[in-house]
């Protein structure tokens, strides 16, 4: 008789445990882990930690991204072990484990930031990579503080977003989802020659937003550039900017058009298709990705898991890049 308490993980190289076997165990059974991968306590050690950051106290408009981690996990159950676009099995040569969610204070943004910083620094101490599931975009600041501490150098930020998120304050508050990259730049965490936004569009507060952004160390590839230049040329520009050192990848799901990601807090018309985003992420092959986040998934505004599925596939492509790098 089938033992329904045994998820029957697919084995990868050596002792590596991959996904629960979908041929033996229904995908919709069991508590959610990302892609039906093992929990951290089910493996002796992990190369990649997936950690949920359920926090949305930094939002300026629609709340709800605190429920993002659970939604992305629930929408990740159909992911299969082989990435045909990259000819890579991302769970076979690296141990990927789901660490669950951090218990983050929703009433103190500064305490929340410290909690994330401390936990992510701890997770990375033995060389493992962290993939964070947000949460609103505030969480990118403690992620970058942790990366800077772990790697002992400035990190290039590859930021996929409709928004610059280099604004100064909201209601006088310095730590919000519209300000993480300004704080990171001021704190000397980012490589000002190699950081890049992709997907920028929509109304700004003022033309000076762009001048500030450039001064803070970012260059910009706009959403419209996909229409005018095409994805191939964008991948070339992206690689030219990022080459030569560690890269942190931050994906705000609102980079996608609201048609492809309705479940988010500050939607802007005129965004990318999920195909354009996934293709661009595959263009990171061989670059030194040291950490990543996927943020701003707010399930209350989602329909038919459209946004959750897009976010789950973003995570899958990022895990594929990490796996490909490990193979070399
Ligand atoms: N990080 C995200 N998703 N949005 C920032 C929008 C800030 C504003 O209200 O202007
Ligand atoms: Zn955004
Ligand atoms: Zn953002």
TrEMBL record:
Mn(2+) binds at residues 137, 161, 163, 165, 252, 254. Binds 2 manganese ions per subunit. Pfam families: Arginase (PF00491). Keywords: Hydrolase, Manganese, Metal-binding. One of its GO terms (biological process) is putrescine biosynthetic process from arginine, via agmatine. Gene3D superfamilies: Ureohydrolase domain. GO terms for molecular function: agmatinase activity; metal ion binding. InterPro entries: Agmatinase-rel, Ureohydrolase, Ureohydrolase_dom_sf, Ureohydrolase_Mn_BS. The keyword NAD does not apply. PROSITE patterns: ARGINASE_1, ARGINASE_2. Transmembrane segments: none annotated. Belongs to the arginase family. Agmatinase subfamily. This is Agmatinase.
